[in-house]
Amino acid sequence: MIAIIDYGSGNIAAIANIYKQLKVPYVITNDLGELAKADRYVLPGVGAFDATMRYLNDSGLVATLNEQVLVKRKKVFGICVGMQVLAESSDEGSLAGLGWIRGRVRAIDASLIPASPKLPHMGWNSVVPKADAPLFAGVDAEQGFYFLHSYYFDAADAADVTATVHYGKELPCAVAHGNAFGMQFHPEKSHTNGVAVFRNFAEL
Amino acid sequence: MLRSRIIPCLLLHDGGLVKTRQFKEAKYVGDPLNAVKIFNEKEVDELMLIDIDATAHAQTPNFALLKGLAVESRMPLGYGGGVTTAQQATQIIASGFEKVSISAAALTRPALIHEMAEAVGAQSVVVTLDVRKNKLLPGHTIYTRNGTEKQKASLLEFCQQAVELGAGEIVINSIDRDGEMAGYDLELAKLVRKTVSSPVTMLGGAGNSTHMQELIDAVGVVGAAAGSMFVFKGPYRAVLINYARPDRLV
Question: Rounded distance, CA A166 to CA B202, Å?
Answer without folding.
Answer: 25
